[in-house]
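Summarise what follows for lecture notes:
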Amino acid sequence: ETLGVGDLVSGALDFNLMLSASDRFQFQASLSSDDLTFFHPMVSPLPIEFLPFSLQSSINFDAQAQERLRFAVDGRLGEDVVAQSQIRILDEEDGTRMVLDFEVEETDCQDLLRSIPAGFFVDLPRDEIRLRGEAGLDGQFRYTFGNPRSFRMNIGESFPGTCEINRMPRGYRPEELLRTTYRHVIPPEYTYAEEYVSGEDYIAVGPATRGYRTLEELPAFIPAIMYLTEQRDFYEDPAISLRLIERAVRINLIYGRWAYGASTVTQQLVKNLYFDRSKTLARKLQEAIVAWAVESVVPKDRILELYLNCIEFGPDVYGIEAAAQYYFNVSAHQLTPIQASYLAGLKPAPSSGGPYRERGFSPSRQRWQDRLEHHIQMLADRGFIDQSYVDAQESFIIPLGDNAIPPAEELEIQPLD
C-alpha cells in the first residue's frame, strides 16, 4: 500500500492481516517498508527517512480475563537492529493498567547510531561520530489510566553497555571545554541590543572572558543552589537522568502538556553552548549525545563552573558575575544566599528578570516567595548555610537594581567539597 498522509508520511508499505473469529479476538499482521518518510516540525525540521524495516505483530483480546489485551511486536530495523515489545492492558483493583515491555537485542554501538535516521541530526554530523562497544536496551513502562502519578519507568542495565564515544565531530569535541582559552559567543538572534556594556558588538562567555568566575572564587552556596534547583543528584547522576525523565513524564501527564523537559545540568550547558532553542525531538537527541560525550571527558566541577558562567539570567545577562552586577550591584562572591536563590529562580524564564529589575523588587506573588523560602531551606538542609539564616528572614521580597541593599560585609568564600 502506498501512503501519502498530507505532508507527514510517504512511502510504500506491505501489509498482511489475519483474523480469527471466536469468543476471543485474535489478530495477526506483518508490515514492512523500504522507503518510509515522516515529517513533523515538532520532531525535526528535516524529513525523517527510516531504514528498511519489517514488523510482525499479534493482538489477543479477552473481555472477561484480567489481561484483557496483549499486543506483541517483533521487528528488525535495517540489517542489524532487532527488537521485541509487548503492550498489556490489565484489570487491576486500582484501575485499568497499561504495561509496556521492550527489548533491543545487543548490537554494535556504531550500528545502533546508524539506525537513527539522519533527519534527527540537524546540526551534529552523525557520520562523523565514532562509537565502540556493544549495547542493548530493555525496560518497562507502567501506567494506570486516569492516574498520571502512577507512571513508572524501569530501564535495564543493558544500556549503554560497553558503548563509549571514541570521537566527536569538530566543533563538538568536549576537550575544548577544559581549555582556559575556551570562549563561546552568544548568537545575535538570542541578544537584545546592538552594542553591549563591553563596547563590543557581541556577548561572549567562558574561561577566556573577564567575567568568568571559578568555583573557588564563590561561596559554596552559589553553585549549590544552581544545581539543587535543577538536579539534586547532579554529582551522582549520569549525563541523561532516567529519574528526571520519569518525573517529567508524570508532570507532563498531570498538566496535559509539555511542562517539564527533564534536562540535566550537563544537557542545559550543552544546549546553551552548541544548539538553538528549538523544542524538537531532534534537538533533544543531539543534545543528549553531546552531553554524554561531555561527561565522558569533563569533570563534574568543571561542568558546573561552566554552567554558572554561561547560562542566561536576564536580557543580555549571561553568567553569575553579570547577574550579580545587573540585579544587585555587587560582585558574584558578595551575593547573599537569598539573592543567589532569586537568581536560581530566574533560570526557567530569564527574560522576566528585566521587568522585575525595572520595578525594583522581586515578585510579590506568594508562589515566588514560597519558592525562595524553599530554595534557602534546601541550602540549610544540606549544610551550605546555617538554619539561623533561614529563620531570620522577615521577607521574601528582595530589593533589585537601584533598590538593592549593599553588602554589609565581605562573605567568607567556601570552596565546594
